[in-house]
Amino acid sequence: MTTIEAVRNRILTLCGERSITINRLATLSALPPSSIKNILYGKSENPKLLTIKMICDGLDITLADFFDTAEFNALEQELR
Questions:
Q1: Residue 29 class from Cβ within 10 Å (0-12 exposed, 13-18 middle, 19+ buried)?
Q2: Distance of CA 47 to the CA centre of its chain
Q3: Which of the residues 21, 26, 44, 79 could staple to 33 if both were Cys, CB 3.0 to 4.6 A apart?
Q4: pTM score, two decimals?
Q5: What is the pLDDT of residues 5-55, one digit of tens each?
Q6: Cα-based distances in Å from 41 to 46, 73, 77, 79
């Protein structure tokens, strides 16, 4: 699994847990829906940390909450 796949999966999981749509997440996060959709559909291969922070703010969670999952902990090192 890649880092961007883990980010995408985490966003989808959090939306599912809260029963909110991507458009609702965009509204809560003060982001254009296209920003979130670009992450989810692979157009953005390197989303900015600020974008992820705004998503976290919209979901009322911390960055630590967002990244503290088994998927992120199992990611292999990007640099070799």
A1: buried
A2: 9
A3: 26
A4: 0.91
A5: 999 999 999 999 999 999 999 999 999 999 999 999 989 889 999 999 999
A6: 12, 23, 23, 24
